[in-house]
Structures are given as C-alpha cells and as structure tokens.
Amino acid sequence: MSTTPKAHLVINQGATFRHRFTWLDVKGRPIDIAGFTARMQIRESIDASAVLLDLSTANGAISLAGAAGTVQLYISETVTANQTWSKSVYDLLMTAQSGEVYRMVEGTVTLSPGPTK
Question: Where are the domains of the chain?
Fold first, then answer.
C-alpha cells in the first residue's frame, strides 16, 4: 500500500493553472527543499507511454520555496487551451542534491472544458 499523499487536480481549459503544495514531515512541519529539483508528468494512465504535460523546475513550470517546503505548479492559458484529454494521472517527484528521489504526491487530473474560446 502506498503512503504517498493523494490529491485530485482540476485544470480549467483555456485558463492559467496554478496550484501549490506544501511538503510536510510526519509532525506537520514544512520540509526544507532548498537545493531540490522537481518534475511532474501527466499521462492518460499509469501505463501510457505518451506524456500529456511535462512540468519541471528545469522548464519553469514548477518553482520551489526552500525552507517553506512549497511547490508551485504553473501551466499557461495557452497550454491549457490546447489540451484535449478529459481525465488523467500524475505524480510529483522531488530530487534531493544527493540524488535521492521522493514521490511527494500523486493523483488524478480532470481537464474542465470551457465554452469561451
């Protein structure tokens, strides 16, 4: 059984998407993520080979706030407008300077279509 926290995300098609996570230890204190990198992929299913969206600190779609333990996701309205899927899955991986990789959160994503173009 996975102990990774789960969170459902909703992305509004054609709108800017921002979401913030705070990585907490077992006592509820923020984990200092200074020096970490992060990456997140959205796929139709866990087994799907195609990546629908790829977010990372390297491409600027994820920003980290060190001692506060916050991870900010960002997808522009242009990118969300071009998405056509409806439901998918994701996970958010955090990589420490030592090279150790942690799965911070995982879950499902719904793309909510909008009539305004």
Answer: 9-112
Report the Cα 36 to chain-centroid distance in Å: 15
Q: Which residues of the chain have pLDDT under 50?
A: 1
Q: What is the pTM for the complete model shown?
A: 0.92
pLDDT value at residue 2 = 57
Confidence at residue 115, expressed as pLDDT on a 0 to 100 scale: 81
Pick the CATH number of 9-112 from 2.60.40.10, 1.10.10.10, 1.20.1560.10, 3.20.20.70: 2.60.40.10
9-12 vs 101-112, strand pairing mode: parallel
